[in-house]
User: What shape does this take?
Amino acid sequence: MKTSFLALALAASGSLAVTAISAQDQPQIPGVVDVSRVAAGSYSLDPSHTLVSWQVGHFGFNDYFGLFGQIDGTMTLDPADIDATKFDITVPITSVSVPSEGLRDHLLRPGKDGAAPDFFGPEPEAARFVSTSVRRTGETTAVASGMLTMNGQTGPVTMLVEFTGAGQNPMSEAQTVGFHARAQIDRTDWGISYAAPLVDNMVDLEISAAFERD
Assistant: This one.
């Protein structure tokens, strides 16, 4: 019996040792939801890892999705004074990505016989969001309001923002802060009325943003 207990004890200790070694070998995730890691200063968006997704109802059957990428922007941030945060974000419309090449062509198609395009046209100006206020709502959340200029028109947009991580990017070695944000806009407010309301007026936006400290 003593031999059996000894064997079990040795096996258990060996297993714990292997587990400890394996845990030590695991790389540490560089980004952590820890506000104390956020340094005050000026930041620029990482365009390779920042995306804006959009979702719109299609004929009442289901939702359709698309993405914008190569996004440019700046942020000034002080974790001790979140309400003073400023954003200036530019989204190139021509970066739009959808599974259907036919739809992408339609989004960037010129109007027929000199008429206005159904959506953005072949040479659309980039959309731009400039914040006007940021209000902290929790330890890691805030509401950001601002003005969105798109398709030649400007109107207000409010976003729900969540802090998702901070740390040093192991590739660029830049101090990085990440956020997720959600908003909803009525596309007709920006003159994009094609097929409304068969294709829903309301468009859901989700933003995944990584800012690197300058």
Summary: The beta strands are 41-45, 51-58, 62-68, 72-77, 86-91, 127-136, 141-150, 153-168, 175-186, 199-213. Residues 3 and 9 are 10 Å apart (CA to CA). Residues 16-21 have pLDDT under 50 and may be disordered.
